[in-house]
Write a structure and sequence with these properties.
The protein has 14 helices and no strands. The chain is mostly helical and 385 residues long. The longest helix has 31 residues. The termini are far apart. The relative contact order is 0.16.
């Protein structure tokens, strides 16, 4: 892949995460100012993922059999329209409609941009190449909330969302410059064969578990930081910026490690174990620096788990059908985000903002430990044979 094409992918991925998290990091706080109940907030945030479950799989399949580039542009238009609607809509049901559109657009960009990148990057040095794209995502994840927190506190939520809308228009323009690939012949049987393989099924189970903690964070983390720890919007933005920069620093090393260590699933499971331990520890933080330290260790695990899940998707599924299969993997993760965002809203209303982190940390740790022991035993038995 040429440097020019790599730069287009990198910039589009950066701007997607920048605008997505610039607004999402503060949506629970914005909705609280609209007098939404905690259960409504959890449900609304979860809708952003639920809508992607319904439509991102067809979008992914369309990208395989028609034109990934055109479907990507359509997704970017939906994503931009989501910000436009958020500027003018304030009541609960209208906001939910906007979040549905935003979920479709965000998932389409995330899935199709990554699957198209995986289709054209080749099979050698895949860890490093995927890490390069993730680098752009993590820089956007960190700098978006930092900019959003400054704009929100200085100029108000409407100006912040308008800024995200303007930047989202640039994503639409960038999609016009990505490389397209030839479509393939359509066959549902091929997809069924792909997902029936044991490694593919196990990957989907792990991605679901990974998605549960994103649901907790998206509905509860900002409220925990604001109402329990007492951070300002600018300090919340600084937390996200520090974490995004930290993950951007880590991901090239993780990609290099992934190319050297060919133990399938190992780094994903180790990442989940680290992440779950410090998910559980998050509510114990009482200061800005205490929270930052806990979340930095937590995101070490996230970096490993997220990167290997994308690398394994490219490894287990044929390149020609990566659009549809990547859409399926994303649907699995999105369904977990929706379920746990909705549950977190209920937990928040009944037990407060700390409880979802405790429950999710224990659940993910238990599953990951059992899975790691199983993988370790399978590996030892294969060496003996």
């Amino acid at each position: 892949m040429s440097r020019y094409r790599s730069a287009v992918f990198f910039l589009a991925y950066f701007l997607y995460f920048f605008t997505f998290w610039m607004v999402l990091a503060y949506l629970p706080i914005i909705f609280k100012s609209y007098n939404f109940a905690d259960q409504q907030i959890g449900f609304a945030i979860g809708l952003n993922s639920l809508s992607s479950i319904l439509l991102v799989l067809p979008f992914g399949v369309f990208s395989d059999y028609f034109s990934p580039k055109r479907v990507l542009t359509l997704g970017a238009v939906c994503f931009s329209g989501y910000f436009l609607l958020l500027i003018v809509l304030k009541d609960f049901y209208s906001v939910c409609a906007a979040l549905i559109l935003g979920g479709v657009g965000a998932a389409s960009i995330r899935v199709i941009l990554m699957s198209l990148y995986l289709k054209i990057l080749g099979s050698t040095g895949r860890g490093k190449k995927v890490a390069f794209l993730h680098l752009g995502g993590y820089l956007g994840f960190g700098s978006g909330p930092l900019a959003g927190g400054y704009l929100y506190e200085t100029f108000g939520e409407t100006f912040m969302i308008k800024s995200a809308f303007v930047l989202s228009m640039i994503i639409i323009l960038l999609t016009l410059f990505v490389k397209d690939v030839a479509p393939v012949l359509f066959s549902f049987k091929d997809y069924r064969k792909d997902i029936k393989k044991p490694n593919a099924l196990f990957l989907m189970a792990l991605v679901f578990v990974l998605g549960t903690h994103f649901g907790v964070e998206q509905s509860s983390l900002s409220l925990l930081m604001k109402d329990i720890i007492g951070l300002s919007k600018k300090e919340i933005g600084l937390i996200f910026f520090a974490l995004g920069t930290w993950m951007a620093f880590l991901v090239p090393f993780a990609g290099n490690l992934m190319d050297k260590k060919q133990r399938v699933f190992l780094l994903l499971l180790v990442g989940l174990l680290i992440s779950s331990c410090f998910q559980f520890m998050t509510p114990f933080a009482g200061t800005f620096y205490g929270l930052l330290a806990i979340r930095m260790i937590h995101t070490m695990g996230d970096t490993l788990a997220i990167l290997e899940s994308d690398v394994l998707t490219a490894h287990f599924f044929p390149a020609a059908r990566l659009g549809g299969n990547s859409g399926l993997i994303f649907c699995v993760r999105a369904s977990a985000i929706f379920v746990f965002a909705a549950f977190s809203g209920w937990f928040n209303q009944v037990w407060g903002y700390k409880m979802p982190f405790f429950i999710n940390g224990i659940m993910v740790f238990g599953f990951s430990l059992i899975a790691l022991l199983y993988i370790g035993r399978t590996f030892r038995e294969s060496k003996i044979k």
